Amino acid sequence: MRRALAIAAKDLRLRIRDRSAFVIGFLVPFGLAGIFSLTLADVDDGEGFSTTFAIVDLDGGHLATGFGELLASLDFVELEDAASVADAERLAEEGGIDAAFVLPEGFSDGVSAGRGGEIRIIADPRSDIGGLVARSLARSFASDLDAVQLSVATAIASGAPAEDAAALAELASATPAAVTLNRDTAESQVLSATTFSAIGMAVFFVFFTVEFGVRSLLEEREQGTLARLLVAPLEPAWVIAGKVAAGFLVGVVSMSALVLATSAFLNADWGDPVGVALMVLFGVAAAVALMALIATLAKSPQQAAGYASFVTVVLGLFGGTFFPISQASFLGTLTLLAPQAWMMRGFQDLAAGGTVADIAPSLIALAIFTIVTGSIAVARSRMLIGR
């Protein structure tokens, strides 16, 4: 073990001296993440959907007042004053409102007495979405009233006194809905452009960062220093372990630095620190195994660098490091063959509020990938050093 660490320390010193680890492992990915963050800043700063309505309350009853309170409670609705139907029509024609609700005289009394009522909508013809939202809100309010009336009619038909209709209606109105919708679920799962860019760049460039490890076997064989290593009383396995350890350590330091820097300076949100640490360790291990296998398939250091660059770029695009790929499509299913896809999935789950349990599939997939490709790489590395 001490000899393997000595080989790893020697490789690390060489890597630090040429500054390539700093440039490829930190400076370039951090710079690109910052550029993407600034470019896509307007996407995160969007205010979302909003619409402007007006209410013409000619009724003044409790149901009309309740409808107005409902609209006022919606955060995407802004209410304008309209004193009359003519005023509402003018505002709609001028584009001052998206739609107006007209509640006629006797609306509350008619609905309460079971005679029904009517809500008129005056929509701006240029605002298709606003008109659709207005009709949807009116239908939802009418459906609630229908449910109350149906409950009262059912109770009276079952023997309840008709004079208790008002009390029954109040009781039915106070009964909570059987099913409610969580409006925050979809929004909470959407990552900011900054966070997605930080994750994507870290995952993409870590494969370049760790690639030098086993590739240095080819460099040392070409320079003649590998033969001198093998003359020493040293098992080939320790030579391989030293090379792998150096690449793994550089990858972990690189990704950890990117996590801290993008969190501090770009406000990226990576999520649970324990989960992020596990994803970094498992992801770097998968990257080392893949790059080691690719390096052993080459005949020269230059060829190994070319192979590694090609595979890294293709799998990086395929794994969704630059743009998300839908998992519902056939292409999305194929992306799961790339370790980058599992790394992106795990980091994004954490950034969306997930826990270690939520990233278990990603960790397992990366572990399997590391074992399979790493075993093949070790076998080929023994052939590479001639023992």
| Unreliable spans | 177-189
How many runs of DSSP E, i.e. beta strands?
4
Provide the helix percentage: 55-70%
Major β-sheet strand ordering:
2-1-3-4
Binned strand content: 5-15%
Secondary-structure element string: HHHEHEHEHEHHHHHHHHHHHH
Work out the radius of gyration.
Answer: 32 Å
Could you walk me through the main structural features you see in this protein, from its secondary elements to its overall organization?
This protein is mainly alpha-helical. 68% of the residues lie in helices and 5% in strands. A four-stranded mixed β-sheet has the order 2-1-3-4, sandwiched between helices. The radius of gyration is 32 Å and the shape is elongated.
Features:
mainly alpha, four-stranded mixed beta sheet, 4 strands
Give the topology, please:
Layout: H1 2-17, H2 20-39, H3 41-44, E1 51-57, H4 62-72, E2 77-81, H5 85-94, E3 99-103, H6 107-112, E4 120-123, H7 128-157, H8 165-174, H9 185-188, H10 193-210, H11 212-223, H12 225-231, H13 236-265, H14 273-296, H15 301-318, H16 330-334, H17 339-351, H18 360-384
Parallel strand pairs: 1-2, 1-3
Antiparallel strand pairs: 3-4
Helix pairs in contact: 1-13, 2-10, 2-13, 7-8, 10-13, 10-14, 10-15, 10-17, 11-13, 11-14, 13-14, 14-15, 14-17, 14-18, 17-18
